[in-house]
Write a structure and sequence with these properties.
- There is one protein chain.
- The chain is mainly α and 123 residues long.
- Helix content is 84%, strand content 0%.
- It is built from four helices and no strands.
- Helix 2 packs antiparallel against helix 3 and helix 3 runs antiparallel to helix 4.
- The radius of gyration is 18 Å and the shape is globular.
C-alpha cells in the first residue's frame, strides 16, 4: 500500500511535471518565451486590466494544452512504443488542440495590441 500523500506534495509533483516538460519540450519553451514577451508588452503599453486578464487567460490555455499534449505523447509512447495509427491520431489531435489555442491567442493578441501599437507608432 502506498503511503498517504500530503496535500502539499501534489504541488511539487505538478512543478516537477512542468520542469520536466520545459527541459524536454522545445515548443513549450517557445510558448513560455512568447508569453513573457506578451506580458512585458502588456505592461509596457499599459493595457487595461481586463485586456491583460484576457491575455493571461489565453496564455494559460496555450501552456496548459502544451503540457497536456506532452502527457498524451508520453502515454502513447509508453503504451505503443512502435508506430500505431491510433497513437498517431491521439498525438496529432493533441497537437491540433495546441495549434487551435495558439492561433486564437495570436488573434486575440492582435486585437488587443492593434490600437496601442498604432498609437505608439503615431499612425
Amino acid at each position: 500500500m502506498k503511503p498517504p500523500r500530503r496535500w502539499s506534495s501534489t504541488f511539487w509533483y505538478a512543478l516537477e511535471g512542468i520542469a520536466a516538460s520545459l527541459k524536454t519540450q522545445r515548443n513549450l519553451r517557445v510558448h513560455v518565451v512568447a508569453a513573457i514577451v506578451v506580458i512585458v508588452a502588456a505592461v509596457g503599453f499599459k493595457l487595461p486590466a481586463r485586456d491583460t486578464a484576457l491575455l493571461l487567460l489565453v496564455i494559460a490555455l496555450v501552456i496548459s494544452l502544451e503540457l497536456v499534449n506532452t502527457a498524451i505523447e508520453a502515454l502513447v509512447d509508453l503504451a505503443a512504443p512502435g508506430w500505431h495509427q491510433l497513437g498517431k491520431i491521439a498525438k496529432d489531435a493533441a497537437a491540433g488542440a495546441v495549434l487551435v489555442a495558439a492561433v486564437f491567442a495570436v488573434a486575440i493578441g492582435i486585437l488587443l495590441f492593434y490600437g496601442p501599437v498604432i498609437d505608439w507608432l503615431g499612425l
